[in-house]
C-alpha cells in the first residue's frame, strides 16, 4: 500500500486532485466531483476534528469487528460500495471550496506526520497504528480519485 506520509505521496495526491474540473464525470457512483471532494474531507475531519459525533458503543464494536479490516486492509474498495451515513454528501457543493478544503486537510495530516497518528484513536475503530491511518487515508482517496479518472 502506498505510504500516505511519504513526501512523494502528498505531491501525487495534489497532482491527481489538480486534474479534476467541476464538470469531471464519475465513472461510477452517485456523487458529483464536488460531493466526492467533500466526502473525502470527512475522513480527515474524523481524524483531526470533533466535528462529527462518535458512533454509539454497540456500533463501534460492530465497526471495529466488521468494517475496520476492510478499511485498513490491503484490498481495494469495490465500486459502488455502501458508505456510512456520516460520509453521505447529498447536497450541492462548490467545487473550488471543496477542492481547497481537501487539499488543506491532506496537507495538515501529512504535516502532522506518522508519529502524530501512531496510536491515535479513530472515532469508529479505536486506536490505529500510523500504518493503518496511512492505509485508511490513501486507500479512500485513491478509490474516489479513480472514480473520477484521476
> Which structural class best describes the helix and strand composition?
mainly alpha
* Poorly predicted spans: none
Q: Please report the distance between the alpha carbons of the first and last residues.
A: 18 Å
Q: Based on DSSP secondary structure assignment, what is the total number of beta strands?
A: 2
State the share of residues found in helices, binned by percent.
55-70%
Total helices: the number is: 5
The geometry reads as: globular
Characterize the biggest β-sheet. Answer: 2 strands, antiparallel
SSE sequence, one letter per element: HHHHEEH
Question: In a nutshell, what does this entry contain?
Answer:
The chain has five helices and two strands; from the N terminus they run H-H-H-H-E-E-H.
Question: How is this fold's topology laid out?
Answer:
Elements: H1 7-18, H2 33-48, H3 57-72, H4 95-117, E1 121-122, E2 126-127, H5 130-147
Antiparallel strand pairs: 1-2
Helix pairs in contact: 1-4, 2-4, 2-5, 4-5
What does this entry look like structurally?
- The chain has 150 residues and is mainly α.
- The protein has one domain (7-19, 27-147).
- It is built from five helices and two strands.
- A two-stranded antiparallel sheet has the order 1-2.
- Strand 1 and strand 2 (126-127) form a beta hairpin.
- Helix 1 packs antiparallel against helix 4 (95-117), helix 2 (33-48) packs antiparallel against helix 5 (130-147) and helix 4 (95-117) runs antiparallel to helix 5.
- The longest helix has 23 residues, at 95-117.
- It is globular and about 40 Å long.
- The model has no long low-confidence stretch (mean pLDDT 94).
Amino acid at each position: 500500500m502506498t505510504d500516505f506520509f511519504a513526501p512523494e505521496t502528498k505531491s501525487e495526491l495534489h497532482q491527481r486532485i489538480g486534474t479534476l474540473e467541476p464538470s469531471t464525470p464519475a465513472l461510477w457512483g452517485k456523487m458529483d466531483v464536488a460531493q466526492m471532494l467533500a466526502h473525502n474531507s470527512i475522513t480527515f475531519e474524523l481524524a483531526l476534528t470533533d466535528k462529527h459525533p462518535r458512533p454509539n458503543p454497540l456500533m463501534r464494536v460492530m465497526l471495529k469487528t466488521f468494517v475496520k479490516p476492510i478499511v485498513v486492509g490491503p484490498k481495494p474498495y469495490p465500486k459502488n460500495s455502501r458508505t456510512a451515513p456520516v460520509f453521505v454528501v447529498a447536497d450541492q457543493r462548490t467545487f473550488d471550496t471543496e477542492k481547497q478544503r481537501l487539499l488543506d486537510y491532506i496537507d495538515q495530516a501529512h504535516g502532522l506526520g506518522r508519529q502524530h497518528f501512531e496510536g491515535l484513536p479513530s472515532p469508529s475503530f479505536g486506536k490505529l497504528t500510523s500504518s493503518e491511518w496511512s492505509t485508511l487515508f490513501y486507500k479512500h482517496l485513491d478509490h474516489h480519485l479513480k472514480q473520477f479518472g484521476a
